[in-house]
Amino acid sequence: MAQIPNLDNAALNLTALREQSQKELLSIIKSIRGKKCLVIDPKLAGTLSLILQTSALKEYGTELRILSADPLQTECPKVVYLVRSQLNFMKFVANQIKNDESKGLQREYHLYFVPRRIVACEKILEEEKVHQKLTIGEYPLYLVPLDEDVLSLELDYSLQECLIEGDTSSVWHVAKAIHKLEFAFGVIPNIRAKGVASTKAAELLNHMQLEDPVSMDNMGIPEIDTVILLDREVDMVTPMCSQLTYEGLLDEVVRQKATSIQQDYAEVKSTNTQSVSELKDFVKRLHSLPEIARHVNLAQHLQSFAAKPAFHARVEIEQIILEAQTYETCYEYIEEIIQKQEPIETVLRLLVLFSLTNGGLPKKNFDYLRREILHSYGFEHMPLLYNLEKAGLVKRQESRTNWPVISRALQLIVDIKDPENPDDIAYIFAGYAPLSIRLVQHAVRSGWRSIEELLKLLPGPHMDLKRVRCLDH
């Protein structure tokens, strides 16, 4: 499990925020007296390990189990389910209760939704005829500190829910999370938002302040001056690109979250590892740090991965796509890796990147590549391709692309002269500065008025709100 992050150097008192989450969870555990089994959904187990040690739960007579489709194995007379508000988890809970009943087991059942209960989940529990057997509550866990400068809502499927399923409940969660921050650090006077979901979250945040106001009298000067909300849809290009830092490569190659990297490695986690020689030097530097064996092994694994011609070719083709250079070269490369049956994730990320920067693909090319993917990887991927098209990530070309205009205006392509001492965020992607980062830089330095026309070329509306005057009353 991930290590609890050290928050001592955070700009805000995130330790107090985490302690509040600890207190609320322990309050739930203490309220259910006696021996009990705490059943946590798989993702939430990792999230909770960032908040408190599991030993703290065991002090209160608590067994820990991970929720699954299998029957619950415990002798505890009380069962406490702590799960996110997802429909599939309700089926698991219902089936475990029914399985207990079929064995004649009498238990006391509690269910706490994270971060809040929703009607659709409770409806399933009613349909499964277990709702009345449960004592239901909420554990309002919204923001989890991952590092001294990173908070996460841990909403893994929010993009899919918003773009594909039409479920915008995560937007409410974003607003609620920020409002909770305001109770700790004061009303945030400036809100800048770009995108349909972000502007909606900003409106909800204002509404929450009216319904459940943060007292301005006792707070003094707000500790947070500005909140910038960006839809992921505004910048879908960046997550399609290969990260080239140590931490980024771990995420790409090993799929190991940044939070499991020990805090001792704060200096090296953003080290750029573009070449094999640099990786070798990097491994040598790692040897000077304490308890390093695991990271040496990881770095050596990354070294062997980064030395592969396929990796270099992929990074190179990404740069060509981002610079909107030769269309045919990019198209032929994607066609080739489909025929070689390289991992479908690699193929789709490049295809999405290609489509986004070209304003789509000509119908003939679009139809051909789609057909080739299905033939090479199987027709079970048809729903996936349909969803990518529905989300606008891969589409037929209908008009000229705005990408070159956006790229030039925001200086997204940068020549990194000194990779060892970079002076621009573009070093993370070998010369590409993330679009979303450029928008944040403009918002912080001079506001968005200077790029007003450019913002109109990006998806969704934008707003720039000053809240102090209306909230002082």
TrEMBL record:
Q: Which domain of life is it from?
A: Eukaryota
Which Pfam families does the protein's record reference? Sec1
Q: Tell me, what is an example of a GO biological process annotation in this record?
A: vesicle-mediated transport
**Which InterPro entries does this UniProt record tie to the protein?**
Sec-1-like_dom1, Sec1-like, Sec1-like_dom2, Sec1-like_sf, VPS33_dom3b
Similarity comment: family membership: Belongs to the STXBP/unc-18/SEC1 family.
Tell me the protein's name.
Vacuolar protein sorting-associated protein 33-like protein
Taxonomic source organism: Aegilops tauschii subsp. strangulata (Goatgrass)
